[in-house]
Structure formats: C-alpha cells, structure tokens
Design brief:
The chain is α+β, with helices and mostly antiparallel strands. The chain has a single domain, classed as Phage minor tail protein U (Alpha-Beta Plaits, 2-Layer Sandwich), CATH 3.30.70.1700. The chain contains 3 helices and 5 strands. Strands 1-2-3-5-4 form a 5-stranded mixed beta sheet. It is elongated, with a radius of gyration of 18 Å. It starts with a helix and ends in a 7-residue tail after the last strand.
C-alpha cells in the first residue's frame, strides 16, 4: 500500500511548482526550523487522518501556507491610511490564500483530480498571524481527498 506516500508526493509536487512557494515540508511543524528565513514562503503538509472506506481512502489534510512578516516603521502603502498597518501581513494573506486556492482548484478540476486524487466536501481556510514564535502569517487550509484503495487484496 502506497497511498499515503502518493498523496504526500502529489501535493508536494504541485506546491513546489507554485510561484509563491519556496520550500515544502511535512510532518510536525515544530520540527521545521521556522527561524530560517530562506525557507519562506513555506507550505507545510499535515495528514490529519485517513479513513478506510472500502474502495476508497479518505485523507483529511491540512496545508499551512506561511510567509514571514516584514515589520517596517512606515506604512507600506499610504502614511495616512492605518487600515493596512505597518507590515505586509495583508499581502501575505493574499498571496498564500492564492496558493491554497490553486491547490484546491487542482484537486477539483486539474491533473490531480484526473489522477484520482479528488476533493470531497468544502475546504476550510483559516488565517493566522500570531500562531508561531516569530512573525509569521498565512493560512491553514484543511480539506478531504479521496483516492482509490486498490492495492489491498482480501483474497
């Protein structure tokens, strides 16, 4: 049975091809050196669970799409407009949501879908900006993928 490996590899390969992703990791996020600035923007894949549903396996997956916040003393857009703040958090939320959206669209209608890695249900993307020790912001995108469970024989 290779389904676990294949799901990770397919998602990793897709994310590595995205212009807003520099490094892709998996496993425990706290095992990743988040202080290393050269890894950002980072996409981190977490397999939350796998349900064996007869002919299919349902994987519940989270992808963290993260970038490092650039704090400045001056407002990056307009000195008179406090709405945007004094850092690039909104820019990060925009670009990293685009990463999540591209992955979801690929699972809905792209090559991954036709390779039988298919999105089930409605994905949920939750923003964060204070989840980690250093200044990071991004999205936690959680979704279900089903794939064929064909490698196990009961005979």
């Amino acid at each position: 049975m290779r389904n676990f490996y294949l799901v990770l590899e397919k998602i990793k390969t897709f994310l590595e091809g995205h212009s807003q992703v520099n490094v892709v990791t998996t496993g425990d996020i706290f095992d990743v050196d988040l202080n290393k600035q050269t890894i950002f923007p980072l996409s981190h894949i977490i397999i939350n669970s796998a349900n064996l549903e007869g002919p299919v396996i349902r994987f519940n997956i989270s992808v963290l799409a993260i970038d490092i916040v650039d704090e400045t003393k001056e407002n990056p857009r307009d000195q008179n407009e406090p709405f945007y703040g004094t850092n690039n958090t909104q820019d990060i939320l925009n670009t990293q949501l685009a990463v999540c959206n591209a992955l979801i669209k690929e699972l809905e209608k792209g090559d991954l879908h036709f390779d039988k890695y298919q999105l089930q249900g409605v994905p949920q993307c939750l923003p964060f900006s204070d989840r980690f020790e250093n200044l990071l912001a991004g999205w936690n995108c959680t979704f279900d993928i089903i794939t064929a469970n064909t490698e196990i024989s009961v005979c």
